[in-house]
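= Tokenised fold =
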Amino acid sequence: MARILLYVVPILLALYALIECALTDGEEMPYRIPKPFWFAIILLLTVIGPLAWIVLLRIERAERGEKAPSPRDVLGKVENMARGQQSEPEPEAGPHSPDDDEEYLERIQREVNRQKLAKQRAAEKEAERKALLEEQKRQQQAKSSPEQPENDSNQDGGEAEDSTKNQAEEDPQENSPEAEN
């Protein structure tokens, strides 16, 4: 049984990949590699080729936002082709513009909210930083200010006393009780 699977699975993978490659438009080819090259890759690289086709096609379609067809969809197309029926283009089930897409609008709203929150956090951090700097300045001023006012008042008081003494020494008559009368 295992030996049979070793031969059957690669053949079925290659067959599925070849059919899907044949049904895919030239513009939708993964990595814009032409169809003949994809046929060669699928046929020559037994297991890796078909898997590469399937995976890369799914990735390309997911990036474009398209739904990847299931194997049943591919087989349905093959059956329709065998019966001679033209496959009708499937109407697009998704929204036609970004404004109609609820997921897109929700994603944009989440992004806007995330950016607002980031700005708010940055502003809060900046305010905290400024408050911390102000607090540090106040603490430094508080440490240095008790020493300076005492020195300043002593210096000012000493100078005031000195200036009154100098005035009294210069004009003894003005300061005397007789000058007041």
